[in-house]
Amino acid sequence: MKKIEELVEEINRFEAIISEWDESQRCVAEGLKRAIEDLHKEALTRMIKSFKQDSMSALKNAVRDEVVYGLLVYHELVKPPIPTLEKRIETALDAIRPSLQNHSGDVEFVGVNKSDTVEIKLIGTCGNCPSSTLTLSQLVETAIKEYCPEIKYVKAVK
User: Where does the chain cross the membrane (predicted)?
Assistant: First the structure.
């Protein structure tokens, strides 16, 4: 049984080859891909309907497999999980980390207070920098609010 990484690598290899073809050849390949995906989606939809009627436990077991789950998400037959607030905050901080690290600084997520306030800690040179207030408001706060619009305040803690 192949691992998901191997399957994705194989797909990427074929996409790289196809990307070098002329436009008419790429259109044919894309049309074939769409037709196969439509067939798979229809088959998966029917299978899910059958599982729902006969055995929900079989469907739940199937969805636990990362390849099956990924395919169902790809075909929009199940909804992807909604990331937690903490995960979205970490994603926002990861997006700005390179900029802070270029100045020998970083940021650490401390926690959420009152469900609308994020507490962070500026570390490294960012913690003692005279421009830390500007870094906090223009970089960190902007990123967090972009990923987490429900957050109203971002404050630095020591």
Answer: none
Structure letter (DSSP) for residue 2? -
Measured between alpha carbons, how far is 148 from 138 in angstroms, rounded to an integer?
15
d(CA 26, CA 14): 11
pLDDT at 138: 79
Between CA 9 and CA 27 the distance in angstroms is 22
Going along the chain, which residue ranges are E strands? 105-113, 117-124, 153-156
* Topology classification of domain 85-156: GMP Synthetase; Chain A, domain 3 (3.30.300)
Which residue, chain included where needed, has tokens 């299978």?
A: 47
* Residues comprising the chain, all counted: 158
Tens-place pLDDT, residues 74-99: 888 888 777 889 999 999 999 988 98
What is the model's pTM? 0.53
